[in-house]
Amino acid sequence: MAAVIPKLITPQVEVLRQSGIASKILVPTDPDYAGRQSSYWSLSASTQLSPAAIALPQTAQEVASIVKALVAAGQPFAVRSGGHTNWAGSNNIDGGVTIDLSQISHVRVSEDKATVDIGPGGKWRDVYAQLDTHGLAVAGGREGNVGVAGLILGGGNTFFTARRGFACDNVVEYEVVLASGEVVTASRDGRSDLFVALKGGSSNFGIVTNFRMTAIPCPKIWGGMSFLPKATTPTAIDALVNFTADIAGDDGSNLVCIFTYMPTFKDVVVATLYANVDGVEAPPIYKKWLEIPRVMDMIKMTSIKDMAFEYNIPGGGYVLWFTASFRNDATIVAKSCELHDALVEQLKVIDSEGGFTTQCLFQPLPRLFGQRSAEAGGNVMGVDRQPHDGLLWLATVNMRTVEHEAAARPLVEKWVADTREFAASSMEGGLLPWTYLNYADPTQAVLASYGEENVKKVRDAAAKYDPEGVFQKLCPGGFKISEVKG
Questions:
Q1: Structural domains present in the chain
Q2: pLDDT tens-digit series, residues 403-416
Q3: Phi-psi group of 135: left, alpha or beta (phi > 0 → left; psi -120 to 50 → alpha; rest → beta)
Q4: pTM (two decimals)
Q5: How far, in Å, are 56, 92, 344, 396 from residue 163 at the CA level?
């Protein structure tokens, strides 16, 4: 394939052209440039930044050529897989080069159906669609629009976490392009330090061009979305806490509980996602939930492919995400919901038409998750240090304009701060240390939350495999180990 060179020759394009890559290169005057920019899930990530060029490699060797050329010329760059991370600068860059991995989206099942090779640029809905023809799944994203690489490199909570650990715990080998342009593999048997550091260490070491994951037989799952009236909130909170406490007895069952304002309802409702990966209909762990009156119900026997398509959080807005993890306690959840209700009323003043969406989202974070990670060989996230069962929290707001987003940010920050303060002060261990990278705002101290021992593993691997600090300086997006003190 001949290189597709745009008419507008910028310094960045000249660097890419001289490297001899056969990739397509887009600049702002190309029609396809606008399409790639608009394909980000969040307008916050795309509308505020305009790369001088977008490179679309098709192979690991092309990624290596691009990296070598950019590093030699000192040109800043960003790396994008699915484009789902919501904040500006995480996966895009202003005036530099965005390496768009969307063309590296292969799904290859091994002959013995034991492992699957997955490209970084695909989305989980497409991965599951291909695996479904084999009756297989992997421990990947639950929401179909999420990209492969971002989810796994940030750890990745999945439908299989209670049984198999996080998504990263299910990777048996990474193929990585280092800052030097060398293409290497990392596994338990080779470059084991890099292998472990990549399990939650994100974009601090190189660009992953293939994830080899353990294949999981999964012909059918039971579950789906339900919507409950706001009046059921106290009952739903108790059911959430009980489910989390009981999950060790049914590690095939999952729960996402969302207290959400939606323009459709013009009020807060309780949305839930159930999923039993063994295909067991209405197992006992859901008994309390299924007794609650429902406004709408989409629960059925289905496939992971179809559920990933159905569980889609709409994008296209200006999005704020924050996260924390708490002790599994009903009073903490109730306080967060109370503060969320107050936030919704404040946001109605900003957007008088009520065209925004919020989520006060909780999901189980039992000690079992960390134990499963340890059994799989360990990662650097530090969840295995958790002293008791917890809840993972996502606080999110999706506004219609950039002005509304700016007005909402201090209100959301106060909601988050007040919830964290209540959890920390109301009981011992109420606020847990772990901050989940994939849900975090850039102001949050994600890597530091992993603990000193894990920070050292990430720091040491970054220094060894990227001694010049290319992925700290020239590739500034994401959470960087160089920004962690100590």
A1: 11-100 (3.30.43.10), 107-218 (3.30.465.10), 221-446 (3.40.462.20)
A2: 999 999 999 999 99
A3: left
A4: 0.96
A5: 36, 35, 36, 28
